[in-house]
Every structure is written in structure tokens, then in C-alpha cells.
Amino acid sequence: MTPPGGRPPPPPPPPAEPGGRLFWAGAAAGWVIIGIGVVGLLADSARTRPLDAGRFVVGAAVVHDLLVAPLVVVLGLLVNRVAPRRWRPVVQGALIVSGAVALFSVPIVRGYGRVSTNPSILPGNYTAGLATVLGAVWATAALVLAVRRRGRPDRSRTHVRQ
Amino acid sequence: MRGAAHLVERLSLVPLVGGSLFMLFSGVANIARWYPWRFSFPITHYWVAWITMGALVSHIAAKLAITRAALARPGAPTPATGGLDRRGFLTAVAAASGVLTLATVGQTVRPLQRLALLAPRRPRTGPQGVPVNKTAGGAQVLDLARSPDYRLVVEGRGVRAPLSLTLDELRSMPQREATLTIACVEGWSSTATWRGVPVRDVLARAGARPDARVRVESLQARGGYRTSPLNRLQSADPDTLLALELFGEPLHIDHGFPVRLIGPNRPGVQQTKWVSRLVVR
């Protein structure tokens, strides 16, 4: 079985399906912990409103799978189609950071929590703040690209690393 | 058995994805004081955390073999498109966490205050230069707190001589000053100079042990944090105050006028405002 040249054989392919004692032990432990959470949630239903909370847990997963994840995939493909090869990882990285920062900022930019009688809640100008942070993120991305170009002038002509 | 294992693995993805997103979304909304739901945030967040952690344990067990095999292979796979590879993706996730941390941590780390462009609070923005979570109007205590009939009542099993003190009587007791921090679990903090009567002195005057366990009650009729407990160490600490003044002025009503509790090593929500009653165990 050893190929010529005395190289060790390649490691066996990873198992396609989970299984084995470790898997079942972990799954059992995990589901016990999940059970503690579910029982706790149900036992205090006056405060936790399990139907309302469940709506948000399931709703979040549905919005993520049907909307956010496909959008991220399409955006990633678009970058591969449009951006020069050398730019792609940096642009994709900057998009990940920008997306996280933008999603975090939605409630503070929109000011949903503002109360006219309490000036200490959301005191900033978060539209300007978000613009500044995103500007810094993309300036950093441009800097990374510039440094990489200077560091490896031939990089654009080389092909995929193996 | 392969089919069953596969089913269990897939099933645990529902609490994993749904739970993680719930924790992230409700937590981010909470620090922005946005509540587009009907459940009580802290207790629901707590129990969904158990569900999410359990799903994570189950998921790690399911992916352990494949992760080990992938890490044993020399070299990371490079995408043919030239896009982000695995290491690049992890770097981007770390960068996103780092940027968000830098843009918010100034609400508790004063030297980084100028970087806090996305922080929901500023440590010096609020009445008397200290932020407020719940106003007196929001807690519906405006009339009770300003009433001339206000009394601080000290009673309970551990008390030999129950007290009913007016604000003037509290002012005439020996005062103590302490520099203490309001540290909110929502991520902001603010340090201030407080002046008032140590809880232990009031307990002694009521004939209770100065290190008695105490339940502190607010004028608030409702709300999850209208009472807070003091353990023995907290009661006995001379810096645990029934504060009457903040930065040398009478407390602003949004900071708990006439009397608020402030002590070391307590989360912000347990620094009970508009204190009306000490129940001594």
C-alpha cells in the first residue's frame, strides 16, 4: 500500500457521520443541559413567556437560515466575481467586520431605547459613530492591501498555493 | 445506529443556532434598552443560555472526530477562488470582536472613553454626572419619594427596637463618605463620591447585629429589582451606605432621593434606590 518513494499513506478520510461512545456521551450530556434549560424556562413561565421566547429562538434561526446566510453567500460570490483576486480575502474580511458592526449598531442608530426623560440612555450620535468606525475598518483594509503589495510584488502573478 | 446519530446531531443544531442568535440578539437589544418582546429579559436570557450551552456540548461531541482529522492533515485547504481561507475567516471574526470591543469599552474603561463611538452609555452623562437606568418617573415613585411623610422603616425578626426615621433624623446621624462604583451588568460603570449613613450604624441603633442579613426594599411597587439582599459581609462593611448625597449635593431623584443603597462589590441593579424599608433577618 505504501506508494513509491516511502511516503507515509495519507490519513484516512474523516468519518462522514458522527457516532461512537464519545459522541453519545457528549450528546447525552448536552441534551441533559438542554433539558435543564427547557425545564427552567417552563417552570418560570409567568416571567419567561415560553411561547414568546420560543418564537424569538425559532424566528432567529429561520431569519438566519433563509435570509442572512443566503445573503452572505451571495455577497461572498459577488466579491469573487468582481474583485481582483489579490483583493478578495481582504474585502471579504472587511465585509465580515462591517456586517457585525452594522448589525450591532441597528438599535442604537435607530434609537429604539431612547426615553425623553432619561438623557443618559443612548447619549451619542451613533450614525456618525458608525460611519467613523466603518471608515476606519475600510481604511485598515486598504492599508493591508497596500502593505501586502509592497511586501510581495510578484504575488499577483502566482497561482493558488497548494 | 448511524441514522440515529445523524438525527441527534441535526436536531441539536436547532437549539444551537436558534439559542446562539437569541442570546446575541436579545443581549445587544438589552444594552440598547430596546425590548421588542414580552418575556422578562434577564431570567429568559439565563435559561436560554443553558439550552445554548447544552447544544454546544452536543455539537462539539458530534464534530470532534471530523475536527481532529482535519487538524491532523498538514496545511490548511486554500479556496480555489482566492477568497478567505479558514485562518483568514477566523482572523476576520476576531477582528470584528476586537472592533466592537474597542468601540464600546470606553463606557467602563475611562482612558478609552473617546473611542466609545458605539457605547450605549457615557460614564459621565446623566444627572449629577452619573448615568441612570431607571428614572423616578419610570419607577412611578415621584410622589412617594418627595412626600413629607417619607420614613425609613427598620424592622424584622433581627430587630429589638424597630425604627421609623425621618429624612432629618437620618441627616443628623454621623455621616460617612465613600468613593464607590455603580457597575452595571449591561457593561457600563461610573465611579462617584457618596455620603450617607453606614447601614451597620442604622442596624446598631435598631438593636440588631451590625452584620445582620438584610432585605432592602424600595418605594417602587413593582419591578424585578425593587428589593435587594445584603449578606453579613456587606452589612458589616462601613462603606455600605444609605446614601443621602452624591458629589456633595442631595441625591437627584433619579439617583434615589431621599435615600439609596450603595456599597462595594454589588452589581448596579442591587444598589437599590428610593429605599423605604430594611427588613432584618
Structure notes:
The complex is a heterodimer of chains A (162) and B (281). Chain A is mostly helical and 162 residues long. Chain A has five helices and no strands. Chain A has helices spanning 20-43, 45-48, 50-82, 88-110, 126-151. In chain A, helix 4 (88-110) packs antiparallel against helix 5. Chain A starts with 19 loop residues before the first helix and ends in an 11-residue tail after the last helix. Chain B folds into two domains: 2-115, no CATH class; 127-280, Sulfite Oxidase, Chain A, domain 2. Chain B contains nine helices and ten strands. Chain B has helices at residues 2-11, 13-31, 41-72, 86-102, 136-139, 142-146, 167-172, 199-205, 232-236; strands spanning 152-155, 163-165, 176-183, 189-198, 214-218, 227-230, 241-246, 249-250, 260-262, 275-280. In chain B, the strands form two sheets. In chain B, strands 2-1-10-5-6 form a five-stranded mixed sheet. In chain B, strands 3, 4, 7, 8 and 9 form a five-stranded antiparallel sheet that branches. In chain B, a hairpin with a 5-residue loop joins strand 3 and strand 4. The longest helix of chain B is centred in the first third of the chain and has 32 residues, at 41-72. Chain B is elongated. The mean pLDDT of chain B is 94.
Number of strands of chain A: 0
What is the percent of helical residues of chain A? 55-70%
> Quaternary status of these chains?
heterodimer
* Helix-strand makeup class of chain B: alpha+beta
In the predicted model, the low-confidence regions of chain B spanning at least 5 consecutive residues are none
Instruction: Give the low-pLDDT segments of chain A.
Output: 155-162
Largest interface, and how many residues on either side?
A: A-B, 83 and 90 residues
Indicate the overall shape of chain B.
elongated
Q: What is the mean predicted local confidence, pLDDT of chain A?
A: 88
Question: What proportion of the residues of chain B is helical, as a percent range?
Answer: 25-40%
Order of helices and strands of chain B: HHHHHHEEHEEHEEHEEEE
Radius of gyration of chain A (Å): 25 Å
Proportion of residues in β-strands of chain A: under 5%
Helix segment count of chain B? Answer: 9
